[in-house]
Design a protein that fits this description.
By secondary structure, the chain is α+β, with helices and mostly antiparallel strands. Helix content is 29%, strand content 31%. The protein is built from 8 helices and 12 strands. The protein has a 12-stranded mixed beta sheet with strand order 1-2-3-4-5-12-6-11-10-9-8-7, sandwiched between helices. The two termini are 33 Å apart.
């Protein structure tokens, strides 16, 4: 089987999403989302999605390639490769990785990060290409159709539970809450969110972002914690981010917001809920275990220095 690697075309979105869902069923992927992401990528990210295509025009592999433009440390790139499980072992992944690395090197990247599913053959594949294992994360799944959720809890005095829709006129307070909550998230690459216009265009207006199911705990009028919801219209719900402002931590507000969001998701007809956690994020793992999430897979981030 002959495979070529090329840049994506708009008409590749459905095939790109199909491969992503097959290789990584714990993440939402739709053609609409991908077209949006490609069109709204930050120019400083030098985003370059790639596909591996057979001689018959079938997309069998994908790569997400770009620069971590929102990191305070320059020269960090990402290259995440996924191949349709039915086409493994035919060289598509190697070609995608090589093309992605060349692009990142041309853009000045010196440190490359890549997520690899935790299976012996995947880890060995990354090791043979010069990548070393770094931190890891879990994909978690919750059955909303038949599973039991913790009962809804009334918010304590002074706390109000709002939805994202309540901030439609001015979502800046949610941007600020997202920024301070994300700043100390576990990860290899630090993130500084300071571009409100880009956040509004790419997060708030993202086709997967569900304002109605996103839940915000407001304390005496101040947004304190939130659980951002994503839905794909296929009954699948994902917790895009759950966080609390440092000034309000230790009060159970993130758990309160997420539980409310999950109940709202089930009432809206969602049947599966997904989320992800760094394996070292003990507090959030404990919260998700309380909700009934189970580990679906483990992913290991790998790093390689080039140049």
């Amino acid at each position: 089987m002959t495979v070529i690697v090329r840049d994506v075309h708009a008409e590749d979105a459905e095939g790109f999403a199909r491969v992503r869902r097959a290789a990584l069923p714990f993440m939402l992927a739709t053609a609409e989302q991908l077209v949006f992401d490609w069109a709204h990528a930050h120019p400083d990210s030098h985003n370059r999605p790639l596909v591996a295509v057979t001689e018959d025009g079938v997309i069998v592999g994908t790569a997400q390639v770009g620069i971590a433009h929102d990191s305070p440390e320059p020269g960090i790139g990402r290259v995440n490769v996924y191949v349709d499980p039915g086409y493994l072992g035919r060289g598509a992944g190697t070609l995608l990785l090589r093309a992605g690395e060349e692009h990142l090197a041309e853009q000045g990247a010196r440190t490359l990060y890549s997520w690899v599913l935790d299976a012996p053959e995947n880890l060995a594949w990354a090791g043979r290409r010069g990548y070393s294992a770094s931190r890891s994360a879990y994909f978690l799944r919750l059955d909303l159709a038949t599973g039991e959720l913790p009962p809804l809890q009334a918010p304590p005095a002074g706390v109000e539970l709002l939805t994202g829709e309540d901030f439609a006129a001015d979502p800046r307070p949610l941007f600020e809450l997202d920024a301070v909550s994300t700043a100390d998230e576990p990860g290899d690459v630090a993130v500084e969110m300071d571009d409100y216009a880009h956040w509004r265009a790419t997060v708030w207006e993202h086709p997967l972002f569900d304002q109605a199911l996103t839940t915000v705990a407001v304390v005496d009028g101040v947004p304190a914690a939130f659980s951002a919801a994503q839905t794909d219209g296929l009954g699948r719900y994902n917790s895009g981010m759950t966080g609390t402002s440092p000034d309000f931590r230790g009060r159970g507000l993130a758990k309160l917001a997420k539980n409310t969001s999950l109940h709202r998701a089930r009432a809206a007809g969602c049947t599966e809920a997904f989320t992800g956690n760094d394996t070292g994020n003990g507090p959030m793992l404990a919260i998700n275990k309380w909700f009934g999430y189970e580990v679906g897979a483990r992913e290991v981030r790998h790093v390689r220095t080039i140049g």
